[in-house]
Amino acid sequence: MLNYKQLHHFWTVARAGGIVRAAERSGLAPQTLSGQIATLETDLGVNLFKRQGRGLVLTETGRMVLDYAEEIFRLGNELEEALQSRATGRAVPFRVGIADVVPKAIAWLLLAPSMDLPEPMRIVCREGKFDALLGELAIHKLDVVLADSPLPPAMDVRGFSHALGESTIGFYAAPALAARLAGDFPAHLDGAPLLLPGVEASVRGPLLRWIEAAGLRPRIVGEFDDSALMRAFAEAGAGIFPSASLVGEQLCRQGGLVHLGDAKGVTETYYAISVERRLTHPAVRAISEGAHAKQNFA
Q1: How far from 250 is each of 23, 182, 257, CA to CA, in Å?
Q2: Of 247, 281, 61, 265, nearest to 162 (Cα)?
Q3: Once rounded to an integer, what is the mean pLDDT over residues 182-186?
Q4: What is the mean pLDDT of residues 70-88?
Q5: Measured between alpha carbons, how far is 168 from 268 in angstroms, rounded to an integer?
Q6: Strands 241-244, 160-173: parallel, antiparallel or unpaired by DSSP?
Q7: pTM (two decimals)
């Protein structure tokens, strides 16, 4: 039977980066922590740490155990928070980070199932740069991050990428601008004013390659990290706007835009990034199940 007190001591030492530092933070004697970890290693039959110079580093097995320990104690914190919320009648907070390149309409479509759970949720959305949000996720200030790309392999963040689905990319323009375009799609993009997502958007590269392969030379009149700002420029007639076809009907109905055509073969994939290997948070699970239930998603 796993001793969770010993596992917590291991988790504390691993996160602190050493026994002495962990002892200072926890108020326990270094000998106590060392003895507890030694007992845990004996019970598990593995080495969790190895000596490196004057310090300790995790073994490969130790890193695996740490991943599980992170998940175990995060779930424990969630349980306490959920019980406290239920006892006081408060809704359980669901903290979501949304990368600023993800269209707001897409974010709503993905998050909507979390609003219909039997246990009431109070959704707290934070929008920002992908890297900054991953840092918040790593220290458990966020429950999940929605992004247009998976967790970068070089990123020093423990997390798991869960693909939610994908959408084709279409081109949209204000009616006055669309009326001035000569010819058929995609030829009428040649020489036309074009708005592009910023360099951090995963769809930017495929879009530029599609434009080049089609032999088109549009005039790039704006680049935007924020998808909502790019849409506002498009609605004002500043340029043609590439966006997920999944929300194309909404763009035409609410934003008054005209659908010009789709970039064949260019898609945008959306991910939920969490610290969970297996999704257990009810709201995150609802997002994943809801996305895969939609016919528009792969």
Answers
A1: 56, 25, 9
A2: 281
A3: 89
A4: 69
A5: 6
A6: antiparallel
A7: 0.66
